[in-house]
Amino acid sequence: AIDRFVLARLGEHDLRPRAETDRVALIRRVTFDLIGLPPTPAEVADFVADPRIDAYERVVDRLLASPHFGERWGRHWLDVVRFGETNGYETNTPRPNAWPYRDWVIAACNDDLPFNEFVLAQLAGDQTGQDAATGFLVGGTHDTVGNLTPDGQLQQRQNDLNDMVSTTGLAFLGLTVGCGRCHDHKFDAVTQLDYYRLQAVFAGVNHGERALRDEDYRRREREEPQLRAQIATIDRQLAEFEPLADPQAPADRPPRRAAVDARHNVERFAPIVARRLRFTIVAANQSEPCLDELEVFTAEAQPRNVALASAGAKATSSSDFQGVAIHRLAHVNDGQYGNDHSWICGGPSGYIEIEWSEPVPIERVEWARDREGRFADRLPVDYRIEASDDGQTWTLVAASNDRSSLALAGAAATSEQPPRNDLAPEQLARLTELRQRRGELVAGLPTAGGTPVYAGTFSQPEPTRWLRRGNPLEPQAEVPPGAIESVSPALSLPADLTEAQRRVALARWLCDPANPLTARVAVNRLWMHHFGRGLVDTPNDFGFNGGRPTHPELLDWLATELVDGGWRLKRLHRMMVLSSAYRQASQPDARALTIDADNRWLWRYAPRRLEAEAIRDAILAVSGKLDTRMGGPGYEVFEPNDKYVHVYIPRKQFGPDAWRRMVYQFKPRMQQDATFGELDCPDASQSIGRRLQSTTALQALNLLNGPLIVQQAEFFAERAAGLAGHATEQQVDTAFLLALNRAPVGAERAESVELVEQHGLVQLCRVLFNANEFLHVR
After folding, report:
1. Mean pLDDT across the chain, nearest whole number?
2. Helix pair 68-80, 23-35: axis angle to 10 deg
3. Higher pLDDT, 264 or 525
4. Distance between CA 294 and CA 393 in Å, rounded?
5. Helix, strand, coil distribution of the chain in percent, nearest 5
6. Bond prior to 489 in cis (omega within 30° of 0)
7. HEC readout, 647-674
8. Alpha-carbon distance 300 to 635, whole Å?
9. Which residues on neighbouring strands pair with residue 398, listed in sequence order?
10. DSSP state of 521
């Protein structure tokens, strides 16, 4: 079916297709295309000798089923979504837990996850059990230093949201919707209101880590109610050992309670009936005080946290820190822990007040600055806690006056619980046992387990307002969540829709069969990587400034096939590489070149240079040193460094730890692999739909003299000599067969033998690594 469209275009321009290429060229082409690695000599020999009519189909099916398929095609998608493992900006600090998103993409490609589900997971994977997938949302740059002024923080927040909106538009719609940030798009039917409707969808997304809810996490979730009940029982038993707070303690009496701890503090007191609690902070150890969560527990057989917003409690404060979304009043009782879900006071002192629906007996308050243990600054050290039934009369129930000072504690604000020396031996043993058991139970909770993943955090956002000229200091009317009005079908969402429902709704809209863009953009990306050029040659821009499709009917047909085929991409991969258009020879034709020098009408297969990743992987495969282990944290090609402003100094030597596929290489922004980065690798600062291809002297110098190249040429020579024996001609033939899947022809053998005899087999191996035939598919 594909060939009918191609042949029709060729006929219109008085062109004829080339004949099918030879089998060696074809298997090298399709193997690199589908898995990004060269075929082995045995695979080539088997295919060349296979007389079956479906021999090529069998090769294609084997490659589509290979786990290496996801590594190859996952890398293409990572370009589009600007995947990087550092924050960018001047400090460019690492994101050590960004890699699960990369692994998720690879697995999704291998599993042939339907593209509509692929889209949904990346926008709302936290709702579908695919937490790592939302790494897409926060995959861009993020200024962790920022401007400390409120105005600067508002600007930084807008930059983060713009990255989410723009990348979503480029990746799925092929539209430069980011142009609507400051004004209506000058060329496409995208208004400024469209932009802010999309921004409202992402307004509750923040940069940060959360636990990856893998199978182990989900098991923990199932067990959580039972664990919580056991923890509550132990807490009641521990209460017998915990001194009650004594806010009236005389100043000259030694403290009975431990110093405050940034990670967790418990205030126990005699039960009191109340419906309000006020936490007044007089001073912190540094700057404005911060709380990640304030919890108030009832004096019941099964204690409840009545301070939770989800239970109807309302929080008010004396003042709030302005401009940073992760430090909001709403976070003080949202049930989420850590600095990324915290409240900061608007001044050096202030208060938080929480009111719940009805009076209940309470007996315990728990609070922390950062339960994740990353921060110990902004810790309240001088405070008082009061309870009230009517909001008029307040009773002091706890204060900091009976706690040791941090200096007396002799440790930082994250010290462990101090030993008790006022208990009998049997009491101390029981206390130690309870503390240990409680720690084991807490470690089993889903919030305490799971691999951390840099995939964003979510909270119900404040109303979104469109900004005059994109200026965050000039907010205008409120804008409800929605999508681009000119793109069918219409999507208008209520302003009070939950944060997660907004992202789910956008994903459904993107993959609605009535949406004219998403399927076309997706199939165009496949076509581009198989044929070297998209049917639309601007894969990230289907708008007015983008390229016109060379075969519009074919693009429409492929998009329809994608939707009708259940959004499965491997089916389309197979169609494309089985087509006669793909299987053509690449040799030029003088007449055709005068009519269509750019091969827009596909009268031949256009030869092209491999990407950096495929070249590096092929070098390791040919040398016999490629480590095919999949997944996990990336390997480093830079020297260790933990400076505040991260400096990336290339390694000079490489061991087996760096011999995995390049897709698993730790990917910093603004800094490239010293050898292969010159081969037009993206810097991960923005979405790249199509890599540019340059030819520079540095590329040739790196591929000839780079330390990894020289090292792997030695391994290549050892491998060839081990297979061929001591005869120089046999070593030459083996080296050609391993690198180029053929024997030397014509003068190649004699010249290669002469080179080996004069300078050694290693130098021939370096030459082969730099041969056009090794670096290109044809």
Report:
1. 93
2. 60
3. 525
4. 21
5. 45, 15, 45
6. yes
7. CCCECCCCCHHHCECHHHECCCCCCCCC
8. 52
9. 385
10. H
Q: Which two tokens stand for residue 544?
A: 């007015």
DSSP characters over 155-212: HHHHHHHHHHHHHHIIIII---GGGGGTSS-SSSS--HHHHHHHHHHHTTEES--EE-
Q: Is the pLDDT of residue 409 over 60?
A: no
Dmax (CA) of the chain: 102
Which position has the higher pLDDT, 678 or 409? 678
Counting runs of H as helices and runs of E as strands, what totals does the chain give? 25, 16
Q: Which two tokens stand for residue 579?
A: 């087509």
CA distance 454 to 140: 11
> What backbone torsions phi and psi does residue 256 show, to the nearest 5 degrees?
-95, -15
Q: CA-to-CA distance for 627 and 663, rounded, in angstroms?
A: 12
Calpha distance 405→266 (Å, rounded): 16
Q: What is the DSSP letter of 536?
A: S
Please name which of 520, 695, 738, 709 lies closest in space to residue 608, comparing C-alpha atoms.
Answer: 695
Beta-bridged to residue 403, according to DSSP, are 257
Q: Distance between the two ends of the chain, CA-based, in angstroms?
A: 24
Q: What angle do CA 638, 639, 640 make, to 5 degrees?
A: 115
Contact partners, residue 731, CB within 8 Å, separation at least 6: 720, 721, 724, 725, 756, 761
Give SS3 for 764: helix
Do residues 132 and 104 lie in contact, with contact meaning Cβ atoms separated by under 8 Å? Answer: yes
- Per-residue model confidence (pLDDT) at position 419: 52
Q: Which helix (DSSP H) or strand (DSSP E) does residue 281 occupy?
A: strand 265-284
Q: Which two tokens stand for residue 112?
A: 């042939």
Strand partners, 305: 297
> In the predicted model, is pLDDT for residue 394 greater than 80?
yes
Rg (CA), the chain: 31
Separation between Cα atoms, residue 88 and residue 91, nearest integer Å: 7
Q: Per DSSP, what are the bridge partners of residue 327?
A: 342
Distance CA 719, CA 624 (A): 7
Give the residue among 60, 37, 59, 41 at the shortest CA–CA distance from 50: 59
Residue 254 per-residue DSSP state? P
**Could you identify the residue written with the tokens 């024997």?**
743
Phi, psi dihedral angles at 279 (to 5 degrees)? -110, 105
Residue 365: name the closest of 338, 333, 389, 392 by CA: 333
More confident residue, 232 or 580: 580
Element (H, E) at 271: strand 265-284
Closest CA to 620 of 529, 713, 557: 713
DSSP annotation of 17? P
Give 549-566 pLDDT, tens digit per residue: 999 999 999 999 999 999
Q: Could you tell me the two tokens for 152?
A: 């600067």
Give the residue from 398, 402, 405 showing the smallest Cα distance to 367: 398
The model's pLDDT over 148-164, given as tens digits with 9 standing for 90+, comes to 788 888 999 999 999 99
Give 94-114 as a DSSP string: B-TT-HHHHHHHHHHHHTT--
Entry field: residues in the chain: 778
Taking the C-alpha atoms of residue 531 and residue 201, their distance in angstroms, rounded to an integer, is 36
CB atoms < 10 A from the CB of 172, how many? 23
Concatenate the DSSP letters of all residues of 347-398 into one string: SSSEEEEEEEEEEEEEEEEEEES-TTSS--SS-EEEEEEEEESSSSS-EEEE
What pLDDT, on the 0 to 100 scale, is given for residue 414?
40
Instruction: Give the integer Cα–Cα distance in Å for 229 and 408.
Output: 35
Strands (E), 565-661: 608-609
Q: What is the pLDDT of residues 538-548, one digit of tens each?
A: 999 999 999 99
Q: d(Cα 103, Cα 230) in Å, to the nearest integer?
A: 36
What pLDDT digit, counting tens, does each position of 286-338 carry?
Answer: 889 999 999 999 999 888 999 999 999 999 999 999 766 788 899 999 988 88
Q: Which DSSP string corresponds to 220-231?
A: HHHHHHHHHHHH
pLDDT > 50? residue 416 = no
